[in-house]
Amino acid sequence: MREVAIVGAGMTRFGELWQSSLRDMFAEAALAALEQTGEARLDAIYIGNMAAGGFVKQEHIGPLLAGEIGMSGVPAVRVESACASGGAALRTAFFEVASGASDLVLAAGVEKMTDGADVTDVLAMAADQETEAYNGITFPGLYAMIARAHMERHGTTEEELAQVAVKNHVHGALNPNAQFRRKITAEQVMGSALVAAPLRMLHCSPVSDGAAAVLLCPLDRAKEFTDRPVKILASGMATAAMALADREDPAFLGAVQQSAQRAYDMAGLGPGDIQVAEVHDCFSIAEICCTEALGLVENGRGGEAARNGYTSLGGRVPVNTSGGLKSKGHPVGATGIAQAIEICEQLRGTAGERQVPDAKIGLCQNMGGSGASSVVHILGRA
Amino acid sequence: MREVAIVGAGMTRFGELWQSSLRDMFAEAALAALEQTGEARLDAIYIGNMAAGGFVKQEHIGPLLAGEIGMSGVPAVRVESACASGGAALRTAFFEVASGASDLVLAAGVEKMTDGADVTDVLAMAADQETEAYNGITFPGLYAMIARAHMERHGTTEEELAQVAVKNHVHGALNPNAQFRRKITAEQVMGSALVAAPLRMLHCSPVSDGAAAVLLCPLDRAKEFTDRPVKILASGMATAAMALADREDPAFLGAVQQSAQRAYDMAGLGPGDIQVAEVHDCFSIAEICCTEALGLVENGRGGEAARNGYTSLGGRVPVNTSGGLKSKGHPVGATGIAQAIEICEQLRGTAGERQVPDAKIGLCQNMGGSGASSVVHILGRA
């Protein structure tokens, strides 16, 4: 395999972007990534997107969005793994460059969620239609069951769940691209409206619009485009049973662990080498389960890690320095790419007030459904 | 790049499969492909699918379908480029094996179209929503405009359009997996109900259910799995303007030509080397335009080639020996993989009554929208 680098990155602000369409947002992110490198050609485009069909009645966004940035002709394909679509797009782009078939490949993600569709209904299509969605369960309900199981097994408290959101808002307040740039208190979280017990509104990531894009090329060409390339050290992916009821332990995200193990093996690294991580906190319980499955914290201690500062900026392994899905926002198809961009910022030393000092190795983990898909990338300063 | 082979293939019959769900069909095709090789492990799964969200309210089919064949854990991702989704899935699988990251990758396609959704509405999402679908145009309408332009420029006749369908039904009558295994006459085609002038019902591919799967591995391991591997000589893809109105000449499918040129360049071959081809005849005019853009027939002579036997079994370059989308059926996400399977059958010498004598090199071309995406693979006897 050829070694692969990320040489450019661009994203929109995440939020309720009423003035921007799907194509506007993609163009803003993609052109920003290209502009950073001074490059104007592409060999291929992969676009992570969960459900433009459901949200804005548009499938086949590959050629549509290639055309939007003046790149009609360039191969452009959509990749979908629900909320892990962005991570999956990065992975497919990585393989195309690694194979030697292409040099300049854009990995992007985009989602337009606020244009009128029933968001809960559309998102529920990421669960098992026959055994879950059809019977009325929604994602807050699924993650509430995961939370209940985690509390039961590990003694995790509602206050620890709240601390994840509090921490991520502290981080997100420092991120100019975040949807919610304000701190919140544990009291506010625990006093917010109950969505699906024990999860409350401020445990949940918001409905967001946004796009993000990174430009990949062979590592040996990276210096043509940037002084600060980031190397993709590894890509790991795994799936698990789609329906929560089919998993042995709902509080344990097996696909996350397996995807991480594959990435660690590929990179020849372990959790102890990770200096900064973006993980998939679609609900606060998800960050707890993911940090455990990634091996970043001890099993059952994810809640405590958020409370005692272990995963905060300044702690042993800062998690979700971007603000995470909770504070930065979660335009589902774009999230996996935005996570990679945050890690690139950290490794390039351009994360500003969110900078983890001298970060050399970072990890991003993107998840689909209630944990049925997980994609992990490990990035390193090149 | 590592050289890559196809070592197993499986598909369902195409048709109105009322007794089979999306997952049933995928499992039937995938397990047949695996059984052919005696292999029970996979490193990854790519699934071409246009719109399970629209058709059966199910996104995130990667983990769902991996689980259905007992492969939870294996990375499984959906790839979407409208009706070119199958071809795009084959291409991404090809890159993963070519990169050296994985050895055993399943490229599959599946679509369940007959379960109650408004098929025309769902398919229209493959056109430009803002400028085309929203204003009421559907795919028969778009291809009718392409047909009108082709008639105007090249003198193509309604009778020539009909001959494409007639030829493909002659072929399809020989294919046990085809949806319509019966011959039709030009008079029947020209007497069938008008859908969008000049296109009539029997110029149009049907609404179909079905699935198809091929197993890829490095060429140097192919003999572990089969005596008759098929080598992927090249993969080419291109896009064009999404909206028909944005193309200089609606009768010329630029993405098809560009994707073919890229594949020919990669393989070091030209149209004259192709002994058998599957091309995307979603409407009879599409086969005419595609055979021209692929260079298999002279520009403007696609209609004549269907009439005079040039593209029939026994002719210079038999096109759509499977029956094509018209007679074999067109479960949109599965089509690109089924095309590759037909070419594999031809190169392995297992095409039965449809066999092109001593076929060594074949091509398959899969298209999305009104020609905004095109994927070409050239396969060779290994």
How would you explain this protein's 3D organization?
The structure is a homodimer of 382-residue chains. With 382 residues, the first copy, chain A, is an alpha/beta fold. Chain A folds into two domains: 4-118 and 208-224, 3-Layer(aba) Sandwich (Peroxisomal Thiolase, Chain A, domain 1), CATH 3.40.47; 136-205 and 231-381, Thiolase/Chalcone synthase (Peroxisomal Thiolase, Chain A, domain 1, 3-Layer(aba) Sandwich), CATH 3.40.47. Helix content of chain A is 36%, strand content 18%. Chain A contains 13 helices and eleven strands. Chain A has helices spanning 22-37, 52-56, 61-68, 85-99, 119-124, 139-154, 158-172, 186-191, 254-267, 284-293, 302-307, 324-328, 332-348; strands at 4-11, 44-48, 76-80, 105-111, 194-196, 199-200, 210-218, 230-239, 276-278, 361-368, 373-381. In chain A, strands 3-2-4-7-1-8-11-10-9 form a nine-stranded mixed beta sheet, with helices on both faces. The first copy, chain A, has a two-stranded antiparallel ribbon with strand order 5-6. In chain A, a hairpin with a 2-residue loop joins strand 5 (194-196) and strand 6 (199-200). In chain A, helix 7 crosses helix 10. The longest helix of chain A is centred in the C-terminal third of the chain and has 17 residues, at 332-348. The first copy, chain A, is globular. The model of chain A has no long low-confidence stretch (mean pLDDT 97). Chains A and B meet through helix 2, helix 3, strand 3, helix 4 and strand 8 of A and helix 2, helix 3, strand 3, helix 4 and strand 8 of B.
